[in-house]
Amino acid sequence: MLCVNGRDEWISGEGKWTVIEDDEIKMESIRLITLSKIPSKSSVVSSVRPRVWSVRRSVEILQSRNGGKNGQRIMRRFAASVAADNSEDEKGGWYRAQSKKDGGRWRAGRYATSITFQVDSFKLDQDIEKLLRKESRLLPEALVDALNKRIRAGEVEKAMKIFELLRGQEWYVPQPAQYLSLLRMLAERKQFVHASKLWTAMEKDKLPHSVETCTALLNVYVKCGRLDAACELFERMKSIPDCSPDVYTYTVLMEGFLHANEVTRVSKLLDEMRQNKIHQNTVTWNSLLVSFGRLGKFDLIEEAFNNMCGGRPDSYPDIYTWNITLKSYGKVGRIRKMEEWYVKMQEMGASPDIVTFNTLIRAYGRNQEFKKMRNVAQNMLSLYFQWDEVTFNTMIEAYGRARMIEDMEEVYRIMKCKGVKPTPFTLTTLINTYAREKMFDKVEKIRREWMNSDIRPDVIMYNSLLEAYRRSGNLSLLEEAFSELENSELEPNENSYVILANAYRSHGLREKYNEVMAKLSQFRNRPKQSKNEGFGLGKRMSK
Fold first, then answer.
1. Distance between CA 189 and CA 531 in Å, rounded?
2. If we measure between CA atoms, which residue out of 189, 135, 218, 263 comes closest to residue 531?
3. What top-level branch of life does the organism fall under (predicted)?
């Protein structure tokens, strides 16, 4: 819309005339004019020029009539509108630039991720060196994220390959935290060789030794049973500036000595800690209590507990201390002593947790004191503790060992009604119990149940099923289950081959028996995996 000839007549885009008499409506119309852009026919003239002209002419009209007040206000509005438009244009340009930048980083991240997948499949160090000649400027965030994922998953070989790729980048700066995370993973997986190579790489990168990294390497040596190397590193730490052993270093080394049943060397280390004024904390004493319980040193357990109670506040017993002590007495069948410690726990004001109750249930179940076991389970519910999978598995195992089939099935029924998902340990216990009682129809029912669920069986579970079919004499189902095991992501172990061979021998199938024994011989003679690479199938009930 344009003001024409200084009159109260306005022309619209369609060429129609409109007369405006009210001043407020005029003001609103002028505001609408200022906020509209009139396209120019000329390609040279900007679309803003007619807009500026129309506002200036409108201001002249209002100044001649109202003393200039409304005109000034319109100019301020116009300036604000132009500034807003310019701001939007600048903002849009920034968004476009940022989008382009983010798109480039996204593509670089995808490319770096694809390179990490290639490195996972490499078998030789020469392949990584050849790759680094071409790919030495990959996106840092993508490589660090790939390394952290493999560390969390415990994939030793893949993590070490990605770390070599990371060290070969042009932008690489050594980070102590990355070495520390890798050393802790290698300690969990008991990888002595990789830990030694990593320590050499750390020295090449000229990173200063710290108490944390030295303790992590010491933990690798202890977990791998290299106590001589651990002691050598421990003595060397004392001569390195700002790297003197702390309470956690002593704790790790004492755990190694206790695992090797060298109690006298532990006593020497405790005396050395007192001389160096290194105070034992609760973590140190709890580690010692675990080892004392495993060795059956109950006199040392009571001595350590008294030291905790009479020591500093940071060494006072916590709930883990009580659970460790109760478990130590319960697993060897010293029920009365366990009950005394439980009463002492309540007298000292410590509140039990679900691990405490599960420890008591397991101890009573192993000693077939089922009335006390049920009382503890009911006490849990009265204290608003819900039964978890460990509670159910413990009770099912206890009833299964005692051949109390109805009670075992009742607990299993409650487990499913409560929405607690059965574990491979649960189904293995049921299969073993039914096979021992020659209830093979229920074994088949359990198998159908696991096939129709998302439970991922392990080799132990398959071996239980194979043994059940061997006892039933059903050779076809046995071969079917063994073939299913071979075609799965799992691998038969020595027990799997032994069960199949015994089944063939009992049926007089000599040729098949010889074939299985040949496979068993090959299995025994092949290079054994290290303990850390095997991803063991054993401990499925951790609490």
1. 7
2. 189
3. Eukaryota
Query: Domain residues for 8?
Result: 2-97
Is 207 within the bounds of a domain? no
Do 190 and 256 contact (CB within 8 A), yes or no? no
Alpha carbon separation from 374 to 194, 314, 332 (Å, rounded): 49, 36, 20
DSSP line for 285-329: HHHHHHHHHHHT-HHHHHHHHHHHHTS-GGGS--HHHHHHHHHHH
Alpha carbons 61 and 74: distance in angstroms, whole number: 12
Task: Compute the half-sphere exposure of residue 13: CA atoms within 13 Å on the CB side of its CA.
Answer: 7
- By the 8 A CB rule, do 75 and 54 touch? no
CATH of the domain at 460: 1.25.40.10
* Confidence category of residue 127, pLDDT binned at 50, 70, 90: low
Q: Which residues of 494-503 are buried (b: 16+ CB within 10 A; e: fewer)?
A: eebbbbbbeb
Contact 252, 218 (CB under 8 A): yes
Alpha helices in 310-423 (DSSP H): 319-330, 335-347, 354-366, 370-382, 389-401, 405-417
* Residue 23 covered by a domain: yes
Which one of 57, 74, 97 terminates a domain? 97
Kindly compute the dihedral angle of the four CA atoms of residues 100, 103, 107, 113, in this order, to the nearest 10 degrees. Answer: 140
3-class state of residue 19 by DSSP: strand
Check: CB of residue 442 under 8 Å from CB of residue 409. Answer: no
Check the CA dihedral 517-523-526-531 and report its sign: negative
Q: Which residue in 205, 281, 195, 275 sits closest to 230, CA to CA?
A: 195
Tell me the DSSP string of 204-228: HTTPPP-HHHHHHHHHHHHHTT-HH
Mean predicted confidence (pLDDT) in 20-46 = 43
Does residue 248 lie in a domain region? no
C-beta separation of 237 from 278 below 8 A: no
Task: Tally the domains of the chain.
Answer: 2
pLDDT single digits (tens) 326-337: 999 999 999 999
DSSP code string of 414-452 = HHHHTTPPP-HHHHHHHHHHHHHTT-HHHHHHHHHHHHT
From residue 496, how far is each of 208, 381, 480, 482, 504 by CA, in Å? Answer: 50, 41, 13, 8, 13
User: What local confidence, expressed as pLDDT, does residue 35 receive?
Assistant: 43
Q: What is the pLDDT of residue 68?
A: 52
The dihedral through the CA atoms of 282, 283, 288, 294 has a sign that is: positive
**Domain limit, last residue, from 58, 81, 97:** 97
Within a domain: 7:
yes
What phi, psi does 403 have (nearest 5°)? Answer: 60, 35
